[in-house]
UniProtKB/TrEMBL annotation:
It is an enzyme of class 2 (transferase). It is found in: Cytoplasm. One of its GO terms (molecular function) is ATP binding. Coiled coil: none annotated. Signal peptide: none annotated. One of its GO terms (biological process) is pyrimidine nucleotide metabolic process. The lineage of its organism: Bacteria, Pseudomonadati, Pseudomonadota, Gammaproteobacteria, Oceanospirillales. It holds the Pfam family Cytidylate_kin. It comes from Kushneria sinocarnis. NCBIfam families: cmk. The keyword Kinase applies. This is Cytidylate kinase.
Length: 222
């Protein structure tokens, strides 16, 4: 289609969230945080007391999600119904639950059109695992962001600290590795770079460096 889409895929903690937000701000484009949709599905299911083995019930939860993303200086405020759940959905256990529901093909399917609706002029920055492979295969530019697991654990710890939560590095590393494993091994939409994606390893790069590199790549593509 004619709507420019920039996809950023990669494992958790590679900096996708921050970098996507900065790029969207800089370009004046819309932003899709697709991980938040899986996190919201998991949180809504928990609140409704849905069994995480009950795939049809989880599909219903995904279909009926009543959510909103409100722009804010801190990023985006995320609403579930009337409730501001911006902080709650970032909890590690919700991340784990999100990864469980994300392994179900029917749940992914239920969220597909909702994600594609974010592609609006003047453009979209889409952050996730399968943005370039499944949701926006025609994207103008596809980036696959990586960083070492140790570096990602350190970043996650700093991020948690900034929101007043705490977790030990070894625990975070274990969770990150378990989540990577599950996201890469699942049969549907596994975490993998699209064939036409450009991989950027951010272990040794600052956030402004990464933003500048991606901005330059986008400018090259015209
Ligand atoms: O990126 P974030 O950590 O918020 O994503 C939470 C979980 O949602 C991931 O571990 C992954 O399992 C799932 N996810 C996904 N596809 C996406 C985005 C997130 O499967 N596009």
């Amino acid at each position: 289609s004619d709507i420019p889409v920039l996809t950023l895929d990669g494992p958790g903690g590679a900096g996708k969230g921050t970098i996507s937000r900065l790029l969207a701000d800089e370009l004046g484009w819309h932003l899709l945080d697709s991980g938040a949709l899986y996190r919201l599905t998991a949180l809504a299911a928990e609140r409704q007391g849905v069994d995480f083995d009950d795939e049809p019930a989880l599909v219903q939860v995904a279909r009926q999600l009543d959510i909103a993303f409100l722009p804010d200086e801190q990023g985006a405020r995320v609403l579930l119904g009337e409730d501001d759940v911006s902080r709650e959905i970032r909890q590690e256990h919700i991340g784990g639950r999100a990864s469980e529901v994300a392994s179900m093909p029917a749940v992914r399917d239920a969220l597909l059109a909702r994600q594609q609706d974010f592609a609006q002029l003047p453009g979209l920055v889409a952050d996730g695992r399968d943005m370039g492979t499944v949701v926006f295969p025609q994207a103008s530019l596809k980036i696959f962001l990586t960083a070492s697991a140790e570096e990602r654990a350190r970043r996650r710890q700093a991020q948690l600290q900034s929101t007043g939560s705490h977790a030990s590095l070894p625990d975070l590393l274990k969770e990150i590795q378990a989540r990577d494993e599950r996201d890469m091994q699942r049969s549907v939409a596994p975490l993998v770079a699209a064939r036409d994606a450009i991989t950027l390893d951010t272990t040794e790069l600052s956030i402004p460096d990464v933003v500048a590199r991606i901005g330059a790549l986008l400018a090259e593509r015209g």
